[in-house]
Amino acid sequence: MAQKARKVRKAVLPVAGLGTRFLPATKAIPKEMLTVVDKPLIQYAVEECIASGIEHIIFVTGRRKSAIEDHFDFAPELEHFLEERGKPEQAKLVREISQGLQFSYTRQSEALGLGHAVLCAAELVGDEPFAVLLGDVIMEGAVPATKELVEIYEATGSGAIHVERVPRERVHLYGIVDAKPMNESKWGEKVLTIHGLVEKPSAEKAPSNLGVTGRYVLPPEIFDYLETTKPGTGGEIQLTDGLCRLAEAGKMLACVYEGRTYDAGDKLGFLQATVEIGLKDKKLGPRFREYLRQQKF
Ligand code: G1P
Q1: Model-level pTM?
Q2: Are the C-beta atoms of 175 and 204 separated by less than 8 Å?
Q3: 2 falls in which pLDDT band (50, 70, 90)?
Q4: Which residue owns the Cα nearest ligand 1 atom 8?
Q5: Angle between helical axes of 145-156 and 41-51 (0-180°, round to 10)
Q6: Quick one: which H or E segment has residue 263?
Q7: Which atom in ligand 1 lies closest to the alpha carbon of residue 17?
Q8: pLDDT for 75
Q9: Closest Cα to atom 9, ligand 1: which residue?
Q10: Burial, 140: exposed, middle or buried (Cβ in 10 Å; 0-12, 13-18, 19+)?
């Protein structure tokens, strides 16, 4: 029998959320377009896709999100203008935003939850594995986060997600996994078999302190599960509940993330990302460090 395709070529980026945590900034601007140092948040996720070998990005979008579409579209007039003004470096920056990628857009017309948003991309994904990246989470590590999951999926055929240890007082903000180290894994203790997941449990009811960070690589079977997933936590169709069904079928792995995660959908996380990414910036970093050093905190 022919083996199912394992190459992960597509990524789903759900961007339909209203961004209420960032009002008034997000009254007219999608939260995904808020800038961290010099790039909109969503560009970090798209760059991670490029670095992970993804070829086709599917945005699940909503009303008032056209700035995202414009950002990843060609801008010949702007490029021409910059070239003419002797700014080829800036023209290159604009050109390279979407280089080599195919983009598709589909709408989630009702805010029915992350699981529902992913299900909206089912037709565009088709019968092949795909990644999901939550655009308000920036993940920076030695290996691009999605690439690490793609490698696990392509080697095992099981769904793979990143998890990280979260402090007890933040457990209720995450999907939390019940997981045990995989037997005889080439990844050692870093990759775990997931036996169950709970969306946003109380600290008392949480099966562990391993929180789902916002990166997933999933087989197309997840769509069958999501189609029959009933609303769960918060009355929404939760991706976590669909993943639970994959875990019951013995097909879900967790990878403990070793890089740095910024939850930039949260104001403090956004500021942390801005400071730390600013400090790492080649041009800006040294002067910014000096500025911070001079502050009397
Ligand atoms: C979503 C997921 C949750 C995950 C989190 C990571 O929740 O439902 O399982 O842990 O992202 O940021 P949200 O933060 O969108 O409420």
Answers
A1: 0.94
A2: no
A3: very low
A4: 175
A5: 40
A6: strand 260-263
A7: 15
A8: 84
A9: 175
A10: middle
Distance 174 CA to ligand 1 centre (A): 5
- Averaged confidence pLDDT in the chain: 93
CB-based contacts of 76-84 (< 8 A; 24+ apart in sequence): none
Identity of residue 23:
L
Which CATH number does the domain 7-294 belong to among 3.30.565.10, 3.30.310.10, 3.90.550.10, 3.40.50.12780? 3.90.550.10
| Rg for the chain, CA atoms, rounded | 20
SS3 content of the chain, % helix, strand, coil (to 5): 40, 25, 35
Mutational pocket test of ligand 1: of 212, 262, 268, the residue with most ligand atoms within 8 Å of the beta carbon: 212
pLDDT at 38: 93
Question: What are the structure tokens assigned to 186, written together?
Answer: 């080439």
With H, G, I as helix, E, B as strand and everything else as coil, classify residue 11. strand
Render pLDDT for 100-142 as a digit per residue (tens, 0 to 9). 899 999 999 888 999 999 999 999 999 999 999 999 999 999 9
